[in-house]
Amino acid sequence: AGREADDIVNWLKKRTGPAAATLEDAASAETLVDSNEVAVIGFFKDLTSEAAKQFLSAAEAVDDIPFGISSSTDVFTKYQLSQDGVVLFKKFDEGRNNFEGDFTKDNLLNFIKSNALPLVIEFTEQTAPKIFGGEIKTHILLFLPKSVSDYQEKLDNFKNAAGDFKGKILFIFIDSDHSDNQRILEFFGLKKEECPAVRLITLEEEMTKYKPESDDITASKIKEFCNKFLEGKIKPHLMSQDLPDDWDKQPVKVLVGKNFEEVAFDENKNVFVEF
After folding, report:
1. Residue from 148, 228, 135 nearest 194 by CA
2. Molecular function terms in GO for this entry (predicted)?
3. CATH class for domain 5-115?
4. Per-residue confidence (pLDDT) for residue 97, from 0 to 100
5. Among residues 101, 125, 99, which one has the least CA distance to residue 112?
6. Considering the chain, what percentage of its residues have pLDDT values greater than 90?
7. Rounded distance, CA 239 to CA 242, Å?
8. For position 1, what pLDDT does the model report?
9. Which CATH number fits domain 120-230: 3.40.30.10, 3.30.565.10, 3.40.50.300, 3.40.630.10?
10. Which of 21, 35, 40, 152 has its CA 20 to 30 A from that of 188?
11. What gap in Å lies between CA 127 and CA 138, rounded to an integer?
12. Which stretches of the chain score pLDDT less than 50?
């Protein structure tokens, strides 16, 4: 269902083999890390320990990432571990993330969820299943044409803000010049010429959209917007037609999203609204 070939292979391996492959030596660990975009290895001196059992339980719950487990001294040495640990290896961003905390299934799953996707993921046909199928249901989107001169600067600003919100908000970049993405712009009420632009959406039972107060695409402004959202201080953005200049010139006034609340709920008047 829209998964890439690698995801299907990993899913089949998980369903037909052990949740985590036993890595007997450094070479087998290196093969696992080098041949996958993301891989997770559990380093446990005692493979029957409670921590190792929690790790295997977490591995069983994740379909699309390969897991390995090892008690080999060579594997510990190769990846600079002196005690039990879990490491997520990836071919982007930091390259690896070391788990810190108590070895519980939930803690491990949260760690994997927070680190398995890039800080900023470009929306494409291939990445869409990971974006919409993931557990993070709050997404902030940067609509940015790749053709603009300051493209990399704006993308870097967006990325610099993303690290603070790992596991809470998914940061997504959309090339607003690409014809395949025009329907997404329309969904957010945006035109190509209005980009670059930032929007936030929650994909719960009701999709709710939010718009930053500032159009500045800087790391500090994006962080401020995300923090205000998480604190519940941002009102949903109701898309609206432009308010006509003569909206109040006739006996029957024209209401759009921008002036609806002010006019329809005016306590000094009796208002009848026809939809």
Report:
1. 148
2. protein disulfide isomerase activity
3. alpha beta
4. 97
5. 99
6. 61
7. 10
8. 42
9. 3.40.30.10
10. 152
11. 16
12. 1-2, 275
